[in-house]
Amino acid sequence: MGNIVAVELTIQGTFTGPFETPAGVIQPTGAKLDVPTADFWFIEDGRIKEFNCYVGASVMLAQLGVQPDFASAVTASTVEAG
């Protein structure tokens, strides 16, 4: 695409180590991960000017067994707004 290189890929692996989160550590489960990803390279004068990588975070978290907690998010937003 001219001076842009775009690649769609998946990052595959196994959840074997602890995953630190703001709420605490999620212990490894051995779950297989297959996370959609897109990489973009912006080229200028034959050199990489910028590189961006976008990971399907919601897919990754679901594969790790992390479920959204909408109730807590609603509660937190009303406390902050009030």
- Runs in which pLDDT lies below 50 for 5 or more consecutive residues are none
Largest beta-sheet characterization: 3 strands, antiparallel
Computed Rg: 18 Å
Helix content: 10-25%
Count of individual beta strands: 5
**What is the residue-averaged pLDDT?**
91
Share in β-strands:
over 45%
For the largest beta sheet, what order do the strands appear in spatially? 1-4-5
Q: What's the N-to-C terminus distance? A: 49 Å
Order of helices and strands: EEEEEHH
User: Structural class, from helix and strand content?
Assistant: alpha+beta
What's this model, at a glance?
With 82 residues, this protein is of the alpha+beta class. Helices cover 24% and strands 48% of the residues. It has a three-stranded antiparallel sheet with strand order 1-4-5. A two-stranded antiparallel ribbon has the order 2-3.
Task: Provide the fold topology.
Layout: E1 4-14, E2 19-21, E3 24-26, E4 32-44, E5 47-55, H1 57-64, H2 70-81
Antiparallel strand pairs: 1-4, 2-3, 4-5
Question: Which keywords apply here?
Answer:
two-stranded antiparallel sheet; 2 helices; 82 residues; alpha+beta; three-stranded antiparallel beta sheet
